Amino acid sequence: MPSTTSAQAGSLLLMSREDNCLIARLDLKAGDTVVIDDRTVILPGDVRLGHKVARRDLAPGDKIVRYGAIIGTATSRIAAGAHIHTHNLESDYIPTYTLEQDGHHFIGSKAP
Fold first, then answer.
1. DSSP labels for 57-72?
2. For the purposes of burial, counting CB atoms within 10 Å of the CB of 61, is it exposed (0-12), middle (13-18) or buried (19 or more)?
3. CA separation (Å) from 43 to 7, 12, 18, 34, 102?
4. CB 3.0-4.6 Å disulfide test: which of 16, 18, 78, 93 passes with 58?
5. Strand, helix or coil for residue 55
6. Concatenated DSSP letters for 14-37?
7. How far is CA 45 from the centre of its chain?
8. pLDDT tens digit string along 47-69?
9. Tell me: the pLDDT tens digits for 91-110?
10. How far is CA 68 from the centre of its chain?
């Protein structure tokens, strides 16, 4: 069972009040606790500086809003506090690619 620690206050940044994602202001670790909209959330996974965190629970097909604008679509269920990235987000504008573990292959997830 992972231990929980409180992430530094202000560790997540809301860019626009319409956004359903927040931006990590520092590297966050699985098990860290953060406060999102007055609710304490335990992060299920690591989130690197500058990456997106779900502000609320999201369902597949939900639009991801950042800076008050839609940036893509959730491809799977995303719990509040979970990392949002190419493993669960597909761009609505450009093909989405994921760098595999060996660092040599890319897979596209959206046809033009």
1. -B-TTPEEEETTEEEE
2. exposed
3. 10, 12, 22, 7, 26
4. 78
5. coil
6. -SSTT-SEEEESS-B-TTEEEEET
7. 10
8. 999 999 999 999 999 999 999 99
9. 888 766 666 666 554 555 54
10. 15
